[in-house]
Design a protein that fits this description.
By secondary structure, the protein is α/β, with parallel strands linked by helices. The protein has one domain: 3-Layer(aba) Sandwich (Rossmann fold), CATH 3.40.50.150. About 30% of the residues lie in helices and about 30% in strands. The strands form 2 sheets. Strands 3-2-1-4-5-9-6 form a 7-stranded mixed beta sheet, with helices on both faces. Strands 7-8 form a two-stranded antiparallel ribbon. The chain is globular, with a radius of gyration of 16 Å.
């Protein structure tokens, strides 16, 4: 979906070139329950819900403005998303509510706490976890965490650098977007 298809507001939004790769890595064909942490405007969440219409989709977003945008974008695209306004990890989701797909778009510098919370009963066996990061420090933290644990396998990653065509007077050029690293792994 094009970026223009979403109501944006002032919250950051994952660009379409990145969203399409996230959706591919999530392998949503057989997804039953999907959790997104750090949902922002809900652009990824909406695409998840459109690609996995039978799945239960839950988004956690820490800002009220983001939660409002997620609900507006869900309504605009006629998808059903449960939105939780909170920081992850959250007590709103009860242990035993397991997800087979998890997308982490932001950790708020709490990666270890979030992963421990997920590992304590929020993930099914063979759950797919996908991260998107723009900083080297976050990429290093995630890679260190998942490679030093025996619980994660099938690690894959891509760094996406996209540019979009823009006008420059009578000419055109490709204006670069921020590069983004997408990391996928499978939980034991």
């Amino acid at each position: 979906m094009k970026d223009e298809a979403f109501i944006r507001g002032k919250n950051p939004m994952t660009k379409m070139e990145i969203r399409s790769n996230i959706i591919s890595y999530l392998e949503l064909e057989n997804a039953k329950s999907v959790l997104e942490i750090g949902a922002g405007t809900g652009s990824v969440t909406v695409e998840i819900a459109k690609n996995a219409p039978e799945a239960k989709v839950v988004a956690i977003e820490k800002t009220s403005s983001g939660c409002e945008l997620i609900l507006e974008n869900a309504a605009k695209h006629s998808v059903n998303i449960d939105v939780i306004e909170d920081f992850a990890p959250t007590e709103v989701l009860k242990k035993g509510m397991e997800f087979d797909r998890i997308y982490i778009g932001g950790t708020g510098r709490a990666l270890k706490e979030i992963m421990s919370w997920l590992e304590a009963g929020m993930m099914k066996s063979r759950s797919i976890i996908v991260f998107s990061v723009i900083t080297i420090e976050s990429m290093h933290e995630i890679m260190s965490y998942i490679t030093q644990s025996k619980d994660y396998s099938e690690i894959e990653a891509s760094q996406i650098q996209a540019s979009r065509l823009e006008s420059l007077g009578e000419y055109h050029y490709f204006k670069p977007l921020n590069p983004c690293t997408i990391i996928k792994c499978v939980y034991k």
